[in-house]
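Notes from hallway chat w/ T.B., transcribed later so I don't forget. T.B. wanted the structure written out for a chain they're using in a teaching module, and asked if we could keep both sequence and structure tokens in one place. Agreed to drop them here.
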Amino acid sequence: MEPERGDVVRSTDPFKLGTDHQRPWLVVNNSFHPFADEQHVAVAISTKEYDDSLPLGEDVWETGGVPRATFVSPWAVHSPRSEDLVAWQGRVTDGFADRVVDSLETYLR
């Protein structure tokens, strides 16, 4: 699986404890990532809403989706490797991916 910016994929969550170690991730890196064919920059998708969460509504999906209300947590960054990806879940619009990256950037400057 070679995801692109805007793809939602399932992978192990290094922040989770217990037996369920997977979660969906939104891939946000672009083609300039130095290892884009083997490693990615992704942010967590959660059913928990926090003050700075971005709603992942039906209107932002190009294809695929999730079964219940979910939110992107742009501060929860992970760098999964291609071999760690379990499944492709869908794709969001370029505009929504850009909005997530803009939000992530506020935590880095």
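Follow-up for T.B.: The mean pLDDT is 91. Might be a good example for the class.
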